[in-house]
Every structure is written in C-alpha cells, then in structure tokens.
Design goal:
The chain is α+β, with helices and mostly antiparallel strands. Helix content is 39%, strand content 19%. The strands form 2 sheets. The chain has a 3-stranded antiparallel sheet with strand order 4-1-5, with helices on one face.
Length: 139
C-alpha cells in the first residue's frame, strides 16, 4: 500500500516489462538511447536474464557405479526412469532499442548495448534485478 502511494509498483520489473512489451509501450520516447536525437529506428537486442537448468536425478556417476556394482542392471533401469530436476525459470527478452542511424553502427559490444538499454527505465530496472544478464544484438 505504501509503495503504490508513492508511485512504486508491487510487481517485479520483469512482470512490468512483459506487460509493457505486450501493450507496445516500449521503448517509449523517440529519442536515440545514445545521443538523444529523435529517431524512429529500432534495433532488437536479446537479453537473457535466467535460464532453466536441467539436472539429472540426484546422485551422479559415482552413485551410479556403486549402485550398478551392488544392484546390477536393475539400478540403471530404475535411474533412467526418473525425471530430471529443473532449477530456475526462463527469463529472456528481445527488446527494441531506439537508436539513430549514426549511433546504430557503434552498438556492437555487450557493454555498449547494455548502456543503450539502460536509457529506458523499464530495461534498467530489469538489469538491477539481473545484473549478470547476457546481452547481444540480434541480427
């Protein structure tokens, strides 16, 4: 209640970003993210915040070897029927970034792309939540 009374939302930056993208509200202003000139030129940038990690059933190779030695082939058959364990969630976006033609050619490295993305407050909020997000330009 207090957060919303001062203009802060109670939802995560990722949820806010997803909603804004669906409504076509981004990137927002017509200013180039690098130099500030008005432009309609957009470039797509891939941002991978988090990925699902699939891990096999707990145990590992040493447990498999010991189980196979003591219980035979039945151990391996039992292990192969177990489902893998998933950790995390997929959180990734292809974000439109507004840059003019002159600045477009300067945006190649992830550091430069991250800086350009940071000019849009909704994108910057996601980077605050995921500082190690992977950034690359989409061809």
């Amino acid at each position: 209640m207090l957060r919303t009374s001062v203009g802060e939302y109670g939802v995560s930056p990722v949820v806010q970003l997803q909603a804004m993208l669906q409504r076509g509200e981004l990137p927002g202003e017509r200013a180039c993210a690098c130099c500030g000139r008005n432009t309609d030129h957009l470039i797509p940038v891939s941002v991978v915040c988090e990925r699902v990690i699939n891990a096999g059933p707990s145990g590992g190779a040493n447990t498999d070897l010991a189980g196979c030695l003591f219980f035979g082939i039945a151990w391996l058959i039992m292990r192969s029927s177990q489902k893998p364990v998933q950790h995390g969630t997929d959180v990734s976006f292809v974000l439109p970034v507004r840059v003019c033609g002159a600045c477009d050619h300067t945006l190649a490295a992830p550091k430069e792309l991250r800086a350009a993305l940071g000019a849009t407050p909704a994108y910057a909020a996601v980077f605050d939540q995921y500082p190690n997000a992977l950034v690359r330009r989409v061809s």
